Automatic annotation (TrEMBL):
It comes from Cognatiyoonia koreensis. The lineage of its organism: Bacteria, Pseudomonadati, Pseudomonadota, Alphaproteobacteria, Rhodobacterales. Pfam families: NTP_transf_9 (PF04248). It comes from the Bacteria. Residues 15-105 form the DUF427 domain. InterPro entries: DUF427, DUF427_sf. This is Uncharacterized conserved protein, DUF427 family.
């Protein structure tokens, strides 16, 4: 793993809110810190209402984590494109985030409760 990436259990209970509705809550979230970037909370898939997520055609590549797949969120107020990402086959050293989802904090609310 790249020395600048750290993954640890996120303390407490974390929620994802979309247009005021909670679509996920977890006590098993992970916090990933990467260099100078703000920490990112990753949620286990089992703790997210996956029925609200639609796979997107968008993909991106991180040289340290691998290829990311994206999801859009179907909300009452409309679709929120590419609001979620996941590393389906993360690179060696960051395997802990496999089967976890991260949410764009500029598109949804991710907070500790």
């Amino acid at each position: 793993m790249a020395e600048h990436i750290k993954i640890r259990p996120a303390s407490g209970t974390w929620v994802v809110r979309v247009a005021g509705a909670v679509i996920g809550e977890s006590k098993a979230a992970l916090e990933l810190t990467e260099g100078e970037y703000p920490p990112v909370i990753y949620f286990p898939r089992d703790d997210i209402a996956m029925a609200f997520l639609d796979p997107s055609d968008t993909e991106s590549t991180c040289p340290y984590k691998g290829n990311a797949s994206y999801y859009s969120i179907a909300a009452k107020s409309g679709t929120i494109p590419d609001a979620v990402w996941s590393y389906e086959a993360p690179k060696a050293g960051v395997e802990k985030i496999k089967d976890y989802l991260a949410f764009n904090p500029n598109k949804v609310t991710v907070e500790e409760v």
